[in-house]
């Protein structure tokens, strides 16, 4: 078993869900100090670990999307893949951290920038304040081997809320549920045909003519395609199970939301998924994830979405479209955690990285990703630096199906070592 995998297994036993990763932060600080590196932590809990006069900065984030039983993670291997039992694995971005730990064990003169809360809006990267010495940065947070990423999507969370009142319902009360769908990353998986539990449930209720809503609880994370959705509704006709939709009669008589029909119509109308394709890059250009819906006992209803686009103009267009839709249904709208796209840029550094990828994999492809990478934010803060991003093959991140190709991890680390030698 390689040192990288051993270090990664150690990381899986340290809780690091977004906004709850202090134990891992403390572990990494101690790890760097014990190997005679200088270590700094800023107010947002970003970590900078440095030795000597480095020319290269390796960058990754230390939080993870916790799905299923996570942060309790039990790993296993199957056909050359590492997976986790009933939880997300955290290979995104734990494998990069494990690679950094091996390099620290070797005493390499590098900068290691390890950012906080990337998965919930690139919070750490947005607040970076370190004095970085390096002239180039290699981000290790992408999920397809033999590819060099030179651009990424920007994004913004668009949240809509309504304060409603309750009235008496008519007919039979039902629980209607869609549970255990595949889920997935709301960026890189948004074009893979993965069904949204919210849309599946919403379409069923629309087809059945249901207009009386008691409550709606759906989705897991803003950056995950929702795998579960449950609604309590009234219906004047029997509701039968259909496909993924399960129904059961409730022997209760709760009141219904006065504007429930409007909320259900909005769910039906909302265009979840890819809105426009980027033909030049062969990836989505704009998309939006209908991520989470919750109601409360006081009549409050909250809808959380995550929009992405490969350009600032694209992000404005899809944001404006969502805001207009929500307002047309009398929702109050709030935009949060906006981050910029990283415009695709071929430089001498991306060429250098591409050559090292070719040496190891026999091929290399420069491309962009329909997801947020911290390169976009960091490049605005450090305009003198050049950036590239690589990573091992990780499938279905942000879901309980997450898996990482172990051979890909080893080969990607070979690329990292090659880049280090070339930059030296």
Domain module tally: 2
Side by side, the strands of the main sheet go 1-2-6-3-7-23
Sheet with the most strands, sense and barrel status: 6 strands, mixed
Secondary structure: helix percent: 25-40%
N/C terminus separation: 29 Å
Portion of residues in beta strands equals 25-35%
CATH architecture of the largest domain: 3-Layer(aba) Sandwich
Mean of residue pLDDT values:
96
The total beta strand count reads 25
Oligomer: single chain
Protein name: M20/M25/M40 family metallo-hydrolase
Pfam families: Peptidase_M20
Organism: Sulfurovum zhangzhouensis
Keywords: Hydrolase
Q: How would you describe this protein?
A:
With 424 residues, this protein is an alpha+beta fold. The protein folds into 2 domains: 3-153 and 341-423, Zn peptidases (Aminopeptidase), CATH 3.40.630; 156-339, no CATH class. Helices cover 28% and strands 31% of the residues. It is built from 10 helices and 25 strands. The chain has helices at residues 3-12, 22-34, 91-105, 123-126, 197-207, 260-269, 312-328, 348-361, 374-381, 406-423, and strands at residues 38-41, 47-50, 56-61, 75-78, 81-84, 111-115, 136-139, 147-152, 154-163, 166-167, 172-178, 184-185, 212-218, 224-225, 229-235, 245-249, 256-257, 273-278, 283-295, 300-309, 332-339, 365-369, 386-389, 394-395, 403-405. The strands form 7 sheets. Strands 1-2-6-3-7-23 form a 6-stranded mixed sheet, sandwiched between helices. Strand 1 (38-41) and strand 2 (47-50) form a beta hairpin. Helix 1 (3-12) crosses helix 3, helix 5 crosses helix 6 (260-269) and helix 8 crosses helix 10. The radius of gyration is 23 Å and the shape is elongated. The model has no long low-confidence stretch (mean pLDDT 96).
